[in-house]
What we know:
The chain has twelve helices and eight strands.
Amino acid sequence: MNEPVYVPPIKIQGIKTKLVPLIRECVNLDPDTVWREPFMGSGVVGFNIEPRRAVFSDINPHIINFYNQIKEGRITHYLVRAFLEREGRHLEEGDEKFYYYVRDRFNREHDPLDFLFLNRSCFNGMIRFNKNYEFNVPYGHKPLRFSKAYITKIVNQVAYVEDLLRKYDWSFLCQPFEKSISAAGENDFIYCDPPYIGRHVDYYDNWDEDAEAKLHTSLTGSHAKYMVSTWHHNDYRANEYIAKIWPECSVITKEHFYHVGAREENRRPMVEALLTNYTVTGNKNELSRKYTQLSMDDALIF
Length: 302
Ligand SMILES: C[S@@+](CC[C@H](N)C(=O)[O-])C[C@H]1O[C@@H](n2cnc3c(N)ncnc32)[C@H](O)[C@@H]1O
């Protein structure tokens, strides 16, 4: 039976909720292995793997601050409920004017509860900052944005993180990936989900070929086991960087649908790839129904 996938309170573009079951099957950790996730984003991958020891990091300080405040007990699910009920009522009365008021307040004061509020009421649950480090995602219009059911869902997501943080030895650091990877030992496992090249989204989410090459050098230098998420191909082109930058890796692929519009015909299939520096073992028949493991020669033929 498939284990359920837990969805965290902060959303982000490129969230890997749908890939969690596959990643789970391709990762095998010893009890002492330290899970390192240098591009944590929402944290959905590591939160579902549930390693005993983990270091989650990201260059975006607001994500890290949010989780550190939960860890320190300064944000609790009770506080989140009271905050969202109050601010949700104000949003109901003030509509988008109130959203932009909170956005300005967050950009001055950086309160993690405002970050949560914006993330859960902005357009498409995006995280995007301009070059002045200001959150600039517009309002995601919806009547009764913070309905009772929606608030309860978010509160439960926060309560779930509180439980995880009580159970496990996890830390959250705001730092660039090079620093996170350089701290890894040979027995650690590093899961990387960098922004995809050429899909520049914002100040904290900028990525190019140089960055991808640096990531490769850092990972090979660490001697740890690693897995990198990337895209493999879509209807129009293949990801040329897989062969160029990651030639020694095994490639596991899985089809994924991105919605680029409300209409069915606008669904664009995108094949996701997991690159690993180890061979994934498991029940071959079971696994092959769910994904394809390709050799590097096959990887770009489809
Ligand atoms: C695609 S998202 C990760 C999504 C995540 N795996 C999930 O499922 O929610 C990429 C993340 O990398 C972070 N990031 C971008 N450049 C970085 C860098 N140089 N060092 C560390 N983190 C970086 C971004 O802030 C963003 O949170």
